[in-house]
Amino acid sequence: MKALQQKNDLPVRRGRMAGRVGLVTGGGSGIGRATAIRMADEGAVAVVIANRRVHEGRMVAAECRSLGVQSLFVQTDVTREEDVARLIQTTVECFGSLDVAFNNAGFQERRAPIEVQNNSVYDSVFNANVRSVFLCLKYQVPVMAAQGAGRIVINASVSGLRNPNPGLSLYSASKAAVISLMRSAAMECAPRGIRINAVAPGRVVTDMMLASGIADMSTVAASLPLRRMGKPEEVAEAVVWLVSDEASYVVGHVLATDGGFTAS
Prior knowledge:
The protein has about 260 residues and is an alpha/beta fold. The chain has helices spanning about 30-40, 55-65, 80-95, 120-145, 170-190, 205-210, 215-220, 230-245; strands at about 20-25, 45-50, 70-75, 100-105, 150-155, 195-200, 255. Helices cover about 40% and strands about 15% of the residues.
C-alpha cells in the first residue's frame, strides 16, 4: 500500500472539513458513500471508509482519492469489537488523528408482521444498528477526548422518532434506542470537547430502502410534503454541516432530513 501521510504533514484544504480526518462506517454505498465523497469535496485531509464489502469500499476510497484526498479502506464488521478497535487504531496510526466520525452502518429487516419475526432477525437488527454505535463510540471517544475535540454524527431514522412503517417494528425500536444512546453520549462527552449529534433520514432512495418491501415508490413520494423522495447526497450535506464549525453550538440534536415528513 502506498505510504500515507500524517495529518500535520499535509497541506490544509478549504471547506467545512478543512484540516480534518474523517471516518465513515457503512461507507460503501448509499448515504455513507455520499457522505464520504462530500467530506472529501469539503476539504478533508483524509477519509477512511469502513465497510464489510471489499469491492464497494475500495471503489469509494478511489472516488475520494480522485478528489485529491488521501483515502483508506478498512474492511470492517462494526458489530465485532475487534474490528472496530482495529479500525480506529488504523485510522490514528495512518493519519495521526480522528477528528470526525459518521457512524452510519445499519440494517433493516424485511417488512413483516411482528409475530413472524424471530430471534435471528432481532439480533441482526439490534447488532447492526445499536451494538455497532456503542462499539464505535467506545473506541472513538477516547481518541477524540485525548485530542481535546471531535465531532460524531450517528445515522438514526425518522422511524426512531415515530413509527411510520408497519412491518418494521424491530428497525423502529432499534433506531429509537440509537437516538437515546446518542443523547446520553452527547451529554457525557460535550464537556470533553466532543460534539455528538444524529441525522434522521426519512424516505431516502438507498439500496436498503429498495430492499425493504415498498411496492409503490411513486405513492410514497406523493404522500411527502415535497412530493419526492430524498437523495443520499441531501443527507450527506446535513452530516457535513453538523460536523462543521457552523454547527459549533449544536449538541445532542436529531436533525430530521426527511422532506418534512415528521412535521406533517
